[in-house]
Amino acid sequence: MNGTRAALEVMIPRDRGVIIQAGSALAWRSIPLQSAYCGAKAAIRGFTDAVRTELMHEKSHIQLTMVQLPGMNTAQFGWARNKMDQAMQPVPPVYQPEVAAEAIYSVIQRPVNELWVGKSTIQSILGQVFFPRLLDRLMVKKAWEGTVYRSAKVVRPTGRPVHAGARQSSGPRPFNDGARRKAVTISADLPGKVAAGVGVAVATMALRALFRRSGKRR
What is the pLDDT of residues 106-157, one digit of tens each? Predict the structure, then answer.
């Protein structure tokens, strides 16, 4: 948020620029064992939407976009504080960092409100919109088990309580096995456009059927 403020101080006088927030599917769909992370990402999404509308009100040409990412193969789980007895990992499928870089670069060239990256991100967001209760039940088992990294050891620094500052030893890309290098991406506007198109098609078919019935009665 402070970074956005700093960028706006430079961009507002010029009335141009693109601000990109690195988001997550978890900004939409929270999962167990990552409540703080989910809350932070949801807050950034709300902040971004609010600032975007403020800029629109001022007729500004500055663009704000958020790239909602899937689980990434980074060192995040190696340095983040862990109070669990087991090491943690991003919920599979996991993608290589280049996937995020390509997605972010694409919205520099063509800004959209939100870009959803990866099949799992798209499924999570649409599932949360249409079937939130069902996803609650799925997350109880799938996300809980998917977050636990059973093949890694938790390294705890000496001189601290057992549950304080726990971390797993890892390199910059600790989840290389099976990490994907390509991902489908869609704009958040697409589902709405598809739904509108389907609605128009259904309405057209209904009107045609109604006119046919009226013609037969005459």
Answer: 999 999 999 999 999 999 999 999 999 998 988 887 887 878 776 555 555 4
Is 96 a member of any domain?
Answer: yes
**Does a structural domain hold residue 26?**
yes
Half-sphere exposure of 174 (CA within 13 A, CB side): 20
Distance CA 21, CA 44 (A): 8
The CATH number that applies at residue 98 is 3.40.50
List phi, psi (to 5°) of 7. -65, -40
Residue 151, token pair as written in the block: 């093949």
- Cα diameter, the chain: 91
Tens-digit pLDDT profile for residues 185-202: 999 876 655 555 555 555
Bridge-based pairing of strands 114-117 and 63-69 is parallel
Kindly state the DSSP code that residue 152 receives in the 8-state scheme. Answer: S
* Predicted model pTM: 0.78
Q: Is residue 196 part of a domain?
A: no
What is the C-alpha to C-alpha distance for residues 105 and 156, in angstroms, rounded to an integer?
38
- Res 70: pLDDT: 96
Instruction: Classify 170 in phi/psi space as left (phi over 0), alpha (psi -120 to 50) or beta.
Output: beta
Which residue from 181, 17, 187, 159 is spatially nearest to 94, judged by alpha carbons? 181
Is residue 166 pLDDT above 60, yes or no?
Answer: no
Q: What is the bridge-based pairing of β-strands 63-69 and 167-168?
A: unpaired
- Find the Cα–Cα–Cα–Cα dihedral 187, 55, 53, 68, rounded to 10°: 30
Question: Distance between CA 96 and CA 94 in Å, rounded?
Answer: 7
